[in-house]
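Figure caption, in words: inputs first, then the predicted bound structure.
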Amino acid sequence: MKNDWLFAPGHGMCAGCAAPIIVKHILAISGENTIVVNATGCLEVATTEYPRTAWRIPWVHVAFENAAAVASGIEAAMKKQGEKANIICFGGDGGTADIGMQALSGMVERGHNVLYVMYDNEAYMNTGIQRSGATPYGAWTTTSEVGMVNPIGNIRPKKPVAEIMVAHRAAYVATVNIAFLRDFKRKVEKAFSIDGPRFLHAISTCPTGWRSDPSKGIEIIKLATETGLFPLWESEHGEDIKITYKPKFLPIEEYLKTQGRFRHLLKQPEYIERIKEDLKAWWRRHGVEI
Amino acid sequence: MKITRGAVVEEAGNSIENKTGTWRTFKPIIDYTKCIRCMICWEFCPEPSIYKEDGSEKPAPKEALKKLPVPIIDYDYCKGCGICVNECPVKAIDFVKEVK
Ligand SMILES: Cc1ncc(C[n+]2csc(CCOP(=O)(O)OP(=O)(O)O)c2C)c(N)n1
Ligand code: SF4
Ligand code: SF4
Ligand code: SF4
Ligand SMILES: [Mg+2]
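Bound structure (iron/sulfur cluster present):
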């Protein structure tokens, strides 16, 4: 085989989508002894167009609501049979922050030995860019249209899903960004070295929904971290989060201007100020003045 | 087409039958005389349609680099997203309009 990633080409994800990059690196670390449970969403739909699949390891599609429940069941059944494998659950932000939250909460609370990965493209992309609980303030989506009535776009702040997992005292929680590959790989390796429920929040460029240049996918999420908007941190067993990368704190406009979904904000500095205030407050809570 | 019970796909990774390279409108071409074999393009290709080749005869900017694996773009699957072009630290990848 010319191509020995556990994730095969020939899938139908858009050119420049970051989700497959996240997946191929996680599987490379997890290895062949892995079972993947995939909630509905772009990653599931576009990698398994029947009768074909891009996955080179056992994989099962389940509904949004029960991905974490099915992963819990697989883990419990394997334990009973005395078998061991890395069980990974992949869910989008809609599938995780909103629809699958209850099953995820139960999975973590019961202490199942599963790694849950939320690939976060900040909207329901597969059905046409509808806002989710993880859509950031100020983003245009097809259900947070920008116009005379609402000049802002999405008016609610992003749900802090990873922090919610810390509050559950999950064994390991981390935010990860493939643009920071060394930090990314270290955290994935650490996640596989710890027993219990683990959660990774991976930012994932969606050129289609973010209205961005497909070639800039890595550059854009690098800016998300360098502006402080997507901080990289980790936490074990509910302990206070530890920042794992100190950003350059570039002006957030550098990030916003790369994406059509924020274009309207650039003409309305008052809303950009509001994002900056929230950003300052988050970093202040974690001991950093910006 | 045989419909399997439970829509089970029996052959892992058979998406390789889909030649998604037909999607391409721009084509990345590696200039090996500039390529420093850092493999950043290989790390970031989303398909993944870049593979590593050992013992390659490709030219290199320095003799010593010839011992390292080289990145090879598999045009059967490259969708022409341009991520490799953008991420290459030495700008060794040209991006040209696809002619079909
Ligand atoms: C209960 C339910 N509601 C709605 C849908 C339709 N649906 C399929 S994919 C999708 C979007 C998923 O969004 P997300 O989880 O963020 O993943 P993404 O597609 O963005 O990667 C929706 C709403 C569904 N399959 N099941
Ligand atoms: S719509 Fe977005 S998330 Fe879905 S495959 Fe395309 S780029 Fe990826
Ligand atoms: S253009 Fe995109 S799909 Fe093609 S080789 Fe480069 S990174 Fe891979
Ligand atoms: S990123 Fe550029 S220099 Fe590095 S291996 Fe790829 S083509 Fe060569
Ligand atoms: Mg999404």
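The mean pLDDT of chain A is 98.
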